[in-house]
Amino acid sequence: MRLHKWEGVLSLFCALALLVVLPSSAWSAEFPSKSIEMVITWTPGGPSDIAARMIAKFAEKNLGQPIAPVNMVGGNCAVGWSYLNNAKADGYTIGQITFDILTNQAMGSDIKYDTFDYLLQFTRQPLGLSVHNDSPYKNVHDLINAAKAKPGEIKIATTGLGAWHHQAGYMLEKKYGVRFNFVPFKGSAEIMAAELGRHVDADINTVTTFAQHAKAGTVRMLLTFSDERLPDFSDVPTVVELGISPAGIESWRAIAVQKGTPAPVRAKLEAAFVKAYNDPEYQQLAKKSNFDLIYRNNDQLVKFLEKGYPVVRESMKAMGYAK
């Protein structure tokens, strides 16, 4: 008799276990059953926007559902990342994360580099300093000399004050004892437009953004904020060789989901994006678009950021932006 009771309890336990397991399994099998929203925190047409849309197009082929990019600009990316963080963790809202999450964290944001789980890092991006081809500044020393003669008057376009573009400019100020007038714009595309329109004296921007203009002779690169000279701009000096900084500033881009996203759903998304990254057609297209390709999984990227964040925070602290 007792044996039958225990058999009944065991049967009930198994049934309850199935109720717990089956919804997750069924959810995984059905996912995705509709389009996926991807939050992009930069303006349309800029390199981060282009990069995100490019890999999403290849990933959606592997998922069988469209990925709908949505640009949410503002607060040095804080607006879009807050939206992503507050969205339901069901895999139907994903987002692109960039270097700027480190600067936001240093400034006291609740959104930190470990707030999300990363599907992959897929690019890194060097910065450069450029001027319009009509500019009287032929090299970086011409620009520095002008800044010394006119403290605070030389206008340099950057993204938000304290962001990584601004940090790069601060390197120059600190090294040469000068002061620029940093003019903030929402994104790389707007920065480029300001330079082409001669509304600023120079700009600090991603090489991807002005590479085509530099090759066409519309703008002139004076400096790269990289460790080594770039293959396509081998005549342009770096901050390292000029003794401006012991290391360059590297931007990066990653695709992330909210903490708590079901493991099977996250695994499907990760597999789709990794497969997209490894697609030869994607690789060729990305390189043609001047994106520096790199792959890191979640653990590798988090370890990389653990080392990089203290450097960013110290720089932000010296600039008076860190809290």
Give a short overview.
The protein has 323 residues and is of the alpha/beta class. It contains 11 helices and 10 strands. The chain has 2 domains: 160 residues, 3-Layer(aba) Sandwich (D-Maltodextrin-Binding Protein, domain 2); 108 residues, Periplasmic binding protein-like II (D-Maltodextrin-Binding Protein, domain 2, 3-Layer(aba) Sandwich).
Low-confidence runs of at least 5 consecutive residues: 8-22
Count of individual domains: 2
CATH superfamily (homologous) name of the largest domain = Bordetella uptake gene, domain 1
Write down how many β-strands occur, each being a DSSP E stretch of 2 or more residues.
Answer: 10
Describe the global form: globular
Q: What is the CA–CA distance across the termini?
A: 69 Å
Q: What's the order of the H and E elements?
A: HEHEHEHEHEHEHEHEEHHEH
Largest sheet: 10 strands, mixed
The overall pLDDT, averaged over residues, is 89
Number of helices: 11
CATH class of the largest domain: Alpha Beta
The CATH topology of the largest domain is: D-Maltodextrin-Binding Protein, domain 2
Helix content: 40-55%
- The oligomerization state is single chain
Judged by helices, strands and strand pairing, the structural class is alpha/beta
List the helices and strands and how they pair.
Elements: H1 2-30, E1 36-40, H2 47-63, E2 67-71, H3 78-86, E3 93-98, H4 100-106, E4 116-132, H5 140-149, E5 155-158, H6 164-176, E6 181-184, H7 188-196, E7 202-206, H8 207-216, E8 219-224, E9 250-258, H9 263-278, H10 280-288, E10 292-296, H11 298-319
Helix pairs in contact: 2-9, 4-11
